[in-house]
Amino acid sequence: MDVSTAVAAPPARSTRVKDKIMATAERLYAEHGFANVSIRMIREAAGQRNKSAVQYHFSTRDELIQAILSRHAAAIDLHRLPMVAALEASGEVTLRDWITCAIAPSIEHHIELGTPSWYGRFLAQAVVEPTFREYAAQATLSTPSFRRLELLRPPSMRDRALELSERQAAMIRLLVVHMSAELEADLAAGRAAASPEQAWRSLGDNLITAVCGLSSALLP
């Protein structure tokens, strides 16, 4: 058979069910919060009659939530990798270059998800939930692209105290996550004046400018 014309086999039923459970859980958690969604609600909303369907794929609720976070982090990583490669090749990285590379890939991912989407509101729940806050941060920071990006920090960022750097990172993370969640909700409700792509790109530009200003203000 000519591999160039071969049709890819459809995903196995088990994979389709797992994907359906993850997508359903993400939507329900985004709409109702982690505390208000049970495994039973997820199973029923995902159309699974087997009472153990969710537990078959995810032994615990925490494992399910972590899997959703990891899946999105991996997708964002694919957008960031070529941007990091371009910065590595440039030989000189400004503060704005670095911040753009940190923020823009998530904006591209939101555009890629389409409307309606639930990742922004799901992530907003995770970053303020003590159980998942650290995992949500590390899901991004541990990706190959972000580890490479860390090595490209401009001198002004490398020289600051660790405590200041951590405070800045927390402020930036909350700003980016919650503004993205608000726009996602506005788009889903039809409250945004611009098209989804225009709205996301405008938010991305505004966030990059805001974070540059915040970073400059926090420089020692």
Please, could you describe this protein's structure?
This protein has 11 helices and no strands. With about 220 residues, the protein is mainly alpha-helical. The chain folds into 2 domains: about 10-60, Orthogonal Bundle (Arc Repressor Mutant, subunit A); about 70-220. α1 packs across α4. The longest helix is centred in the middle third of the chain and has 30 residues, at about 60-90. The N and C termini lie far apart (about 65 Å). About 30% of the residues are buried.
> How much beta, percentage-wise?
under 5%
Largest sheet entry: none
What letter string, H or E per element, gives the SSE order?
HHHHHHHHHHH
> Low-confidence spans: pLDDT under 50, at least 5 residues?
1-7
* Molecular shape: globular
Number of domains: 2
> Helix tally?
11
**Rounded average pLDDT:** 90
Question: Into which percent range does the helicity of residues fall?
Answer: over 70%
Distance between the termini: 63 Å
Q: Would you count the extended β strands for me?
A: 0
SSE blueprint and pairings:
Layout: H1 13-32, H2 39-45, H3 53-57, H4 61-90, H5 95-113, H6 119-126, H7 133-141, H8 144-150, H9 155-158, H10 162-188, H11 196-218
What does this entry show, briefly?
The chain is an all-alpha fold and 220 residues long. Helix content is 72%, strand content 0%. It has 2 domains: 11-59, Arc Repressor Mutant, subunit A (Orthogonal Bundle), CATH 1.10.10; 68-218.
Give short descriptive properties of this protein.
TetR/AcrR family transcriptional regulator; DNA-binding; disordered N terminus; Arc Repressor Mutant, subunit A; mainly alpha; Homeodomain-like_sf; HTH_TetR
